[in-house]
Predict the structure.
Amino acid sequence: MARADLCGDLSGPEDAPLRPEEAEIDATELETRALNDRLRELLLSGVGRVRIKNVCGQRYIGTRLYTPQHLKMDIEIFGTPGNDLAAFLFGHRITVHGNAQDGVGNTMDAGEVVVHGRAGDVLCFSMRGGEIYVRDGCGYRTALHMKEYEDKRPVLVIGGTSQDFLGEYMAGGIVLLLDLENKGHQANFIGTGMHGGVIYLRGSVEDCQLGSHVAHCPVDQSDRKILDHYITKFLERLPEVASRREEIVNSPFVRLTPRSKRPYSSLYTY
Amino acid sequence: MKSFVFPEFQIIRDEQKCGQCRGCERQCAFGTHTYDPVADRLISDETKCAGCQRCVIFCPKHAIVIRPTPSFYRPNASWSREKLDDLKKQAETGGVILTGSGNDKPFRIYWDHMVLNASQVTNPSLDPLREPMELRTFLGAKPDLMDISSQEGVVSINTSLSPNLMVETPVLFSAMSYGAISYNAFRSLATAACKSGTYFNTGEGGLPKEMRQEFGRCAIVQVASGRFGIDAEYLNCSAAVEIKVGQGAKPGIGGHLPGEKVSELVAQTRMIPQGTDAISPAPHHDIYSIEDLSMLITALKEATNYEKPISVKIAAVHNFAAIASGIVRAGADIIAIDGLRGGTGAAPKAIRDNVGIPIELAISSLDRRLRGEGIRNRCSIIAAGGIRCSADVVKAIALGADAVYIGSAALIAMGCTLCQKCYTGKCNWGICTTDPRLTGRLNVEIASQRLSNLISAWSHEIAEMLGGMGINALESLRGNRDHLRGVGLHEWELDVLGIKGAGE
Amino acid sequence: MPRIRRELYNKEICACSIFGAMNQSGERFNAAGVMKAIANMHVRGNGLGGGFAAYGIYPEYKDYYAFHLMFTGKSRQDKLSAKAELEEFLAGKFDVVYEEEIPHRDESTVSDPPLVWRYFLLPHKHGEDEAISDEDYIVSKVMWVNTKIENAYVFSSGKNMGCFKGVGYPEEIGEYFMLDRLYQAYTWTVHGRFPTNTQAWWGGAHPFSLLDTSIVHNGEISSYGTNRWYLEMYGYACTLQTDTEVIAYAADLLMRRQRLPIEIVARILAPPIWNAIDRMNDSEKKLLTTLRMVYGPLLMNGPFAIIIGQTGRMIGLTDRIRLRPLTAARRGDMFYLSSEEASIRLISPELDRVWTPNGGEPVVGELNNMRTVLQ
């Protein structure tokens, strides 16, 4: 199986530079539709940075921001964004000061999301590019059907641990769980149906927690380079955990990869 | 007396392909093919042919075709060829027409008139390849409630529990006795049952001593009216004990193993003289009324130290639900019901084709009766009689059964082609015979692998169907008629089955 | 013998939002906060059902069972005859100490409301009934009313608690019954509904309740047919055409009648997977295997997140593979459960702890002085 190389930088396709104009939105009493209307207006009018305050449950933030010219925006969210944050995201950067809910990065194509808190279920479902950094843990069915093609490869870094069905049907990309609080990985059914990509776990995991098509082994030198790169990026974006870089980078990690590209070839009779 | 009856089959040999290897002569125990030294070729006698297709499959040149004879009487909706020929045979011999396998007449097959549900949108279907899908179930009596106490974090169960069989998939091998089937076939069933986490049933022929230690834990041993081969070790080495009161192929009459099939080993296992007919009488002669059955059930529990579930197997007939209810109250842990299409090694054709009711209607009616009386928890229901595929299993469980027994299906997996000549003892596939020249043809390792493959394939299919319905544990399908709909059924049939019509 | 007709029951399907808030010190509060919280999850519903359960709302009548009745029917006359028939039934079986129409606003946006009344009463047992407990008596009479008296439904039957529900968004139902003005409770649970049957009816909204157990539920129970027949054997009649009913009756059977603790009940409704059980130590393995063996037909299959309300307790539980979301949170004495975290943050921006419980593991909040409340 091809090993993940060091990823290129985060910019999306044919990137336009970030404009310096700023704006602020107060999301109190704003419905999802109205908030996203406003965001798009700002993007089209030339704003490069937006702060949204009092966010409480509004959904699909960042989704309606595709433009043929690939305009980019930097969005800072204060509060708790609703489901499907950064769904279908096309190259913007979103920072959340708070917890995120379910569906973050749903089919995300490019860009970056940083969450100073935890994320919910179905994180990075079908993600196809870009990077997501979550400071704390996440819920069920993380990185389900994540995919990659040649050098377009999504990356997810979690500071805590995940719940069950991590990496189910995973077909590509890199998932890295740091378990910074050393609670141990409790997830079950990790990687069931995995047929591409790689999952790195800091610490260890039992065989009975893994799907039957997952192979696991300790990391090697080239893995360490990848880990170093993304851990550094994680700590840069989440300075509140900066102090322990050496300790993290030198910890034991395991690598999970699929055993075969066609795990179910012998199931059917013709 | 000259026989006026048509040969049933026509044998067509392609003389150009045939290499005269005489393989067909060796394969056929009925003596259909013989080598004529004068003409220096193989000739075939249609009157002997049973249509078992053994020679066809084993001919290295695929030179033989065997098919139902095209000769015909004048077409007659009432007098079919079979009816005419059976009558002529009786006129020739004055005897009872005997047959094997299960009812082949066109009674309505309810499995083919029921369709299953799938979940969409409002409830996700589950993917059995990736999400856990549990087919494990327990057969036996369950208490109505559990009394649990907890002290300092240690939880203890105060209710006393009845013994249960834990089975990994709801398909068990039905009762087929050693004697009715060959030792190799019998051993293949036992081997596959142990390997696949399910059980086999010894039928009324006993369990040979050399098999008890290895296979006893997967064996449901039968206590039938002939009481063949029953000793205390037999009872205690088993996983469960089944009292055979009746079977679907021949309700109301007993078993009959012709003397031809009672070989030395069969005689030893059954403890009767070699070569005699092994007759199981119709009733158990110690059960003339329900309280007698209760006595026998308790006697067996005593004999097995209350460690094994006791099952009672009955044929599905008209008022059987009331009988079954009585049987549950008499202390049975499992009720096995065998429907109209159940198979057999030998039965009078008149009984096989005319007595009993279809198992689909029986399961539903029994489940409803027991629920109505509030006693459904006290027993598990195993359904038998013409289960042909995994969809039938799923439908049976949705109608209320806990598990199914497969008989004909298991034999077909081993090679049987349902030629219905089991009673002759000349089974060319080595299955329903005790002739050592024939039984050697069935290799235990290969046959048991075929059976395990069957169980595995059906289990995967059942998991797919369950997942499609949004269910990941078999417990949630049992009696869940909401997932069934009827197509092309009359109102009364929908009522008996307890299901809605498709679209309702 | 007459032929037994098959049961042509309909099971409505719904998806929804749920929310619960409990003050564990027992201090009571009005519904304004939870109405805001559920309104925040407005998009999860479609306005065809909403409801609340509230605990501690009738302190002056706390020793009496509070029956909330719904009288439906096309015309006002239908509703009044149902009421008359019901009151005649009550007169023979209960001592009613007080009764009145549940106060509501007329100018709100709910559609086609039934007549909704409350009766505070105690059982009046005759003959054979004297041998059974008050609670079993109440349950059997509630089942009787719901099956036999046309157009009358008891939708709440506990002491010092009550359900309020109907067709409309939950915040609309809250306004209709003036829950933010007239009532103070130490636990509120709320539900917003998205049924796929457009002819929604008031009785089909959540919560479903029997005695003091109330359930709000998000999901669909694919094992409904199995759960239903099992419960019917114990005398529960499933008449309200919604699968949530079986959860309420299962909770009543297991927790009240069979007195099993919630940790065991959660293991019955949402048991662990077999290969996890097979790896446990001997005594745990035996317990869980026995529970699955005996109570298999009560396994709730299909996606669900439920909040169970009881006197002095609020419990959250999700299905064994967590197909529906549930977030739990604590802030001081407050304990919250919600389909989405944002709703909790709306009424309590600061939280001490936020987490999403594992599938099949219950989260329980209890009043600090639980023992006193139960006496």
